[in-house]
């Protein structure tokens, strides 16, 4: 089996079995892993697969799916169309309030570009305002979308093709994350409206 990523991608993305066949390639982007274990290239995929197989409660994954689809109907089916990647390529610590270092943010850029080159998503939903602010600043600003409840900023990369990045709040944010409000606003974005209609 051909190796998709080089060794610098320490946490390889979860790739749904129908992702590459989908006319709407959506990458869900998280920030980092928290664990006491050593780095494992399949850690990200294992975490997502464990959530799917056990159909367990997860504020993070559940929030992402509800923001995208509006509701969770069939976790396995819904994740088949998606990919998921954690930007920081090292375990940042054992606790959820451990934060990436400046070196970790810097190191994460090259693996990120490699992942984008392989996955070629049409859209990236970036979950976490701090993460969104620390993504590579090459490219150009996109449109801002808002209603009376929320505002979503966007950015555009060119990696063989245009890739739109939308900045959303982290689903576990203590200040609140309303997946229904995000879904309502995402459905008004022209590009995402087209994509969501075929997801």
Radius of gyration: 16 Å
Unreliable residue stretches = none
Which class best fits the helix and strand makeup? alpha/beta
Count the strands? 8
Task: Name the overall outline.
Answer: globular
Number of helices: 8
Q: In which range does the helix fraction lie?
A: 25-40%
Distance between the termini: 28 Å
Strand content: 15-25%
Main sheet overview:
8 strands, mixed
Average pLDDT level = 89
- H/E element string? EEHHHEHHEHEEEEHH
Describe this structure as you would to a colleague:
It is a single chain. With 199 residues, the protein is an alpha/beta fold. It has eight helices and eight strands. Strands 1, 2, 3, 4, 5, 6, 7 and 8 form an eight-stranded mixed β-sheet that branches. Strand 7 and strand 8 form a beta hairpin. Helix 2 packs parallel to helix 7 (179-186). The chain starts with 13 loop residues before the first strand and ends with a helix.
Task: List its traits.
199 residues; eight-stranded mixed sheet; globular
Furnish the topology, listing elements before pairings:
Elements: E1 14-15, E2 26-30, H1 43-54, H2 59-69, H3 75-80, E3 82-86, H4 102-107, H5 109-119, E4 123-127, H6 129-134, E5 140-141, E6 145-146, E7 151-158, E8 162-168, H7 179-186, H8 190-196
Helix pairs in contact: 2-7
Describe the structure concisely.
By secondary structure, this protein is α/β, with parallel strands linked by helices.
């Amino acid at each position: 089996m051909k190796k998709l990523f080089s060794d610098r991608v320490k946490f390889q993305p979860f790739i749904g079995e129908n992702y590459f066949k989908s006319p709407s390639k959506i990458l869900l982007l998280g920030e980092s892993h928290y664990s006491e274990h050593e780095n494992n290239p399949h850690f990200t995929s294992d975490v997502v697969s464990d959530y799917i197989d056990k159909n367990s409660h997860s504020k993070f994954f559940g929030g992402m799916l509800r923001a995208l689809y509006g509701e969770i109907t069939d976790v396995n089916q819904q994740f088949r169309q998606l990919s998921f990647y954690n930007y920081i390529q090292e375990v940042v610590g054992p606790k959820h309030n451990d934060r990436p270092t400046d070196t970790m943010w810097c190191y994460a850029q090259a693996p990120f570009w490699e992942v984008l080159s392989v996955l070629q998503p049409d859209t990236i939903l970036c979950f976490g305002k701090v993460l969104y602010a620390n993504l590579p600043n090459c490219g150009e600003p996109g449109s801002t979308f808002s209603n009376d409840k929320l505002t979503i900023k966007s950015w555009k990369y060119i990696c063989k093709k245009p890739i739109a990045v939308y900045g959303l709040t982290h689903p576990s944010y203590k200040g609140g994350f309303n997946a229904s409000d995000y879904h309502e606003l995402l459905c008004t974005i022209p590009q995402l409206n087209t994509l969501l209609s075929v997801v």
